[in-house]
Amino acid sequence: MDLQAVRDSLEKAALDILPTTTLAALPAKFYDNFIIKGIQIDHIEPGRVICSMRVPPRLLNNGNFLHGGATASLVDIIGSSAFLSAGCPTSGVSMEINISYLDAVYANEEIEIEAKVLRAGKAVGVVAVELRKKQTGKIIAQGRHTKYLAVSSKL
Amino acid sequence: MDLQAVRDSLEKAALDILPTTTLAALPAKFYDNFIIKGIQIDHIEPGRVICSMRVPPRLLNNGNFLHGGATASLVDIIGSSAFLSAGCPTSGVSMEINISYLDAVYANEEIEIEAKVLRAGKAVGVVAVELRKKQTGKIIAQGRHTKYLAVSSKL
Amino acid sequence: MDLQAVRDSLEKAALDILPTTTLAALPAKFYDNFIIKGIQIDHIEPGRVICSMRVPPRLLNNGNFLHGGATASLVDIIGSSAFLSAGCPTSGVSMEINISYLDAVYANEEIEIEAKVLRAGKAVGVVAVELRKKQTGKIIAQGRHTKYLAVSSKL
Amino acid sequence: MDLQAVRDSLEKAALDILPTTTLAALPAKFYDNFIIKGIQIDHIEPGRVICSMRVPPRLLNNGNFLHGGATASLVDIIGSSAFLSAGCPTSGVSMEINISYLDAVYANEEIEIEAKVLRAGKAVGVVAVELRKKQTGKIIAQGRHTKYLAVSSKL
Fold first, then answer.
1. What pairs with residue B148 in β-bridges?
2. Beta strand pairing status for A93-101 and A40-45?
3. Does DNA-binding count among this protein's keywords (chains A, B, C, D) (predicted)?
4. Quick count: other Cβ atoms within 10 Å of Cβ A93?
5. Could you give the percent of chain B with pLDDT greater than 70?
């Protein structure tokens, strides 16, 4: 996938209009849209993607800061796009994910997400992802995502 | 929180009706609803929660199986409820999460999620969470979630 | 490797005599010996190994309890042997390791280490490893180890 | 601990002479010595330590490259020293460790290890540790280590 296509796949994730009126009727592949709608790409080069978004209310937890599961989903989705930016034919399937949560971030704060491919082998790739507060650079979370890239083969 | 209250907090997560017509207008604290709507508790005892759900289309990835970020969100949310079932005054804030993805699960397959508290100290707790196919017992994912439980104090 | 050979590879890890008089002259492949000398296999079946050892003074940290690095090394070594017990042609190369430390264990306390293969595919395998106090069953640490098993191929 | 004391604690880890002739008789707290003997500090500042060493034969695995358990031990030990360099009163006790193994490194190759504190709160700290080949900068492993720093309190 060329860099423009990777950019488009993230930025044009979804129409903002909800396609149905019930949770049960939400269609397949809606998940990425739900997580990243509103994101913009600030920088993209082979193996490295930097993007930013304002934390939307829908991604908050009961403490009113960014949900740990939403953070994990961002690590997954933006990390996967970094493999595509590196020229991998697919973004692979998830094998491992790990995240350290370092600080809370609240609704409408602007965050920056940087994904950097550490390794992209024929079979396995690893990407490091960091979430930071855009204004201060303070780290919100740091994680790594390991993917199996030879998806036609068997794990 | 007593066991019935923990059960209710998971099962009665949401009305199925979407409260708005745009993603941007979805309200705060909608995230848990989005992930766990449809879940039912099969067993609950202090420190251990087992629940099940049919994989809904909204939680699929582009490969049409359960999204890695949705799995991580389930580990987060069901793991947190296990701390409440153990009598912790709060479910704390996330410090670390890690997940190994072992198998794919598709729309409408029934999964079982078991969360078991490994440690619930005054400051820090750790819970192990496993997702299995309900019919076969085959493991889909295994993770651990570490939380800071003394939330009034400073990390 | 048959089960007796896996057993022997762990139990007969080393003569107890140090082969040289300086750290610098210690030979290649001494590491496993250093970690597991004294271990005994309590149970072995395909994909599952349970062994026990008394915590030797050489594996303590400055707080006089089992060193986090020694625990990680045990997760690595005993986890790897579980792949061999499962009939994998090699124990592969390490891709990921993660450990939650849950309790301290002191010199001469007896510990039990259980390694259980969660998945052993053609390319990738995952094993869960738990360290417990043998007398009480209290969990000391829980980890997972992911290995690339198709070692002749390229990662 | 001041920076010079942190430096000394790593570089002067041990006499090279083995203090006994059997593994069983090796004394308590020998572990750090075994792992880091030969290391030198290239740079130290509050919250950040960079050191280097030639991979000694004693830390190899059966494939003749740096043992995964030795890598984990280096992440543990050098990571802990970074908390001391940041002015933490103790280096705390281990809560979590995770490592991605990215490349093999062989005997006598020179490696560089960088530990960088991501967070050092009153209760909990997180440090990122990276191992690289010194000549090429190629990443060998990347990990994080989470420690409980309020060690007089109860976890």
1. B93, B124
2. unpaired
3. no
4. 18
5. 95
pLDDT > 70? residue B152: no
**What are residue D9's phi and psi, to 5 degrees?**
-65, -25
Nearest to A31 among B21, B28, B61 (CB): B61
Least CB–CB distance from B128: residue in C103, C119, C142: C142
Q: Which regions in chain C score pLDDT beneath 50?
A: none
Distance CA C113, CA C132 (A): 6
CA distance C83 to C97: 15
| One-letter amino acid of A141 | A
Domains identified in chain B and CATH numbers: 3-148 (3.10.129.10)
- CA atoms of D2 and D45, how far apart (whole Å): 10
pLDDT of residue A126: 98
Check D57 against C100: CB less than 8 A apart.
no
Of C38, C69, C104, the CB nearest to D31: C69
Return residues 91-150 of B near A (CB < 8 Å).
93-101, 104, 107
State pTM to two decimals. Answer: 0.95
Alpha-carbon distance values, C34 to A76, C7, C16, C17, D68 (Å):
38, 17, 9, 11, 14
DSSP lists the bridge partners of residue D120 as D125
Other Cβ atoms less than 10 A from the Cβ of B48: the count is 15
**Alpha carbons D60 and D55: distance in angstroms, whole number:** 8
CA distance C110 to chain A (A): 31
